[in-house]
Design goal:
heterodimer; A: 253 residues; alpha+beta; 2 domains; nine-stranded mixed beta barrel; two-stranded antiparallel sheet; 4 helices; 30% strand; globular; disordered N terminus; B: 625 residues; Lipocalin; Metallo-beta-lactamase, Chain A; 3 domains; nine-stranded mixed β-barrel; seven-stranded mixed sheet; 23 strands
Amino acid sequence: MAGAGWVLAVWMGTIAATAYAQGRGGPPPTPKAGAPVDLTGYWVSLVTEDWRYRMMTPPKGDYTSVPLNPAGKKVADAWDPAKDRTSGNSCKAYGAAAIVRMPGRIHITWQDDNTLKLETDAGKQTRIFSFGTATTQGGDWQGVSTATWDRPGSPMGFALGLGYRGGPVGGSLKVVTTKMKPGYLRKNGVPYSADAVVTEYFDRLDVPGGDSLLVVSSEVNDPAYLSQPFWTSTHFKRQADASGWNPSTCVAE
Amino acid sequence: MESLDLRGGVEVSAVKLMRVFHTVSFLFAAAVTLLAQGQPVPGVDLSGYWTGAMHEDALERGAGPELVDYTGFPINEAGRLWALSYDPSRVTLRNHQCDGYIMPYQVRAVGNSRAWEERDPHTQRLIAIHWWHQTFEGHRVIWMDGRPHPPAYAPHTWMGFSTGTFVGNALVVYTTHLKQGWLRRNGLPESDQATVTDFFLRHGDHITYTSVVNDPVFLAEPMVRTTDFYRQPSDPTSWLFACDDGEQIIGRAPDQVPNYPMGKHPFLMEFSKTEKVPLLAALGGPETMYPEFAARLKTATEAEALARTRPSGAPQNSRAIDPTPHDGEIHVWPVRRNVYLLAGEGANITVLVGEQGTFVVDSGTGQLTDKIIAAVKTLSGKPIQYIANTSFRPDHTGGNVKLRASGNDPSVQGSFFSNQFADAGVGATIMAHQNVTNRMSAPQGKAPPTPSEGWPSDTFLTERRRTFQNNESIELFHELKAVTDGDSIVAFRRADVIVAGDIFTTTQYPFIDLNSGGSVQGEINALNDILNRTNYQHEGEGGTIIIPGHGYVSDEHEVTEYRDMVVIVRDRVQALIQGGATLQQVRAARVTADYDTRYGATSGAWTTELFVEAVYNSLKGGPAK
């Protein structure tokens, strides 16, 4: 009877493998081939929220709604944009924790089968999202980002790899970013530290009869400057082409 | 022997193994069955307690936005002008004090939320997802069972009517039938014509909610917003939001609605100067939400901004959908208790059924009277006993002759009246204010405009006519010099339904016919008279049902917004008259510009120009007494 468990395991494995093969057609695909959603293309930000904090540089000391702790407030109150400019830190507000909040356009492409690339025209930044082993070292504005596909769960269908009947399953791109150079959550010096961890979900929403939207849900955890996670969600509209793409250097003012 | 280790490390009994085998087989079969049936696998389970993360737009959503901060809102000119005329003191009006939040704004409010599923007890299929929001006790129902949306003549609510489906990892919801409300609570409006597509995404204990508002009346482009919720591990035990209206300003005249004159907002520059935001940006518009606008912040001038505080361009037509069916059929909508709406024959027709006989309010144009009679028969086997006319107009009385002939009034047969009228009891009895009969008939020797068989014979001269029918108290109230001199509203007291006639419509500016004895002040008085007879059920909605002369079934909120509009237009015209303006100058001022995309018409029987002219001439002749 000792081998009975193995028999059962083999049986279940066979079912799962068969189902997977039927549903997916062969060996596990690369992240690019197995992408549950197409995020590539040009996207323009729609600044309908936090307008005063995003389209303009708010006054020094205005950190309304950011859950800064006392240490964070102290840093924010000491913001000196001129010093940032002269010290080569003009891009402090363009780091991974805040770059999607910048008004502008982003361009998402596959760099290779395992790597998504997100470029911004605002500040001319590039983020690399690596599925599996990260290819960047960190210590810069964009840090190290690891990516996974976050697929909708189902206790049976997806455990068996069946997916939804008759269509793509959908899903999110989950990106966790660490090892960033300290930067700003807002242009007026609201800080995050090198210990900050940014968890983002990229979702594509196709409005029936309307636009395609990209929604980036972001959670910033920073033991140094935040008293609780900082949540924002930022939305973009898909463009058919690169219209309006306007690369510009970082500005600290 | 009791444990099972599929890695083979422990000996397993045959019985136990069979149980596991059966269990696994069952689960596999269930999964296959589920997929074969096409039952969507939920991509997001919203059940639980949620609280909105206030890390975006915190000041606006908490303490409240500043006046004239429309930054990033893709409003059109009508939306901007509507907001600029909004005086926040308007919420001191009784009928606005408990205004709820419309659904797209509700989710932006502070407070707790709770979501739960409603499932069929027998099949466990998902029927609906419920979302309760503490602020204004908003209870949203998202129907997941594939039911259709109601017809266009059905009532509107704060939460609207929502249907949902799972697409990938999102719950996608489509909402119609919303009331007019706020996009932002500094007066930025969202119209009752708005539809919303929204998406719920759940990532662990975090919901990202995205709403896409399409509003042909007040928006130039869809308004997209995203809102974050985080899960609460336990019941916050705070779910209510009590509201009860009361006297706020003693002695204010009932026809006063706080509003800022067009182009004269007293706090126009306040937000702009305080926050150092160029006025052009503060005034909003679709361009302000795109990145390119950042460059305009340095070049925007006050002059070009000020130009946006007044109407420009050509008069606009209504962008509202016509709620009246035009398919040649009569559509029946159950209103409340034994009261029904018949839609499809121009003006709305209301029917009260019961053991005594049928009571009909208005008879339509006369084009579909046979179908009206057939529709009434589906509601009651009793004949039509009474027909009440709210107006003499042909679209309210055109079916009188045929409808009357199809019924009879047994209450006069065998009574003293039998001896006085040869046709007593023959046909239904038509009742209305005497002025209706006067306008449908003609002095002896002159040709009457309508056949005598359709004239109201049971008329009244004073302000009230009452009767009791089918266990229902029915009252007709004459509204003096409203859209004509013969208007009545009909109140069914027990059902709590008021038939407003053309005093209130959801389709156009009030058809104030000065030649038939109408006046703008009388119209305002009549709307206020309706509002004096209404109550709301909860948070400013529900309660007394108002059936408009034309348009969708309403409650006091729609009447209140309509009353506000007439008062505001009157105020503007009055101010221009006091400044010496001619009719041409009043027309050129486009005093209705913020309402034209909702009610305006540049052609047809009742244009915006005719409405403005009626208001002007009515005021020049002095307000109605």
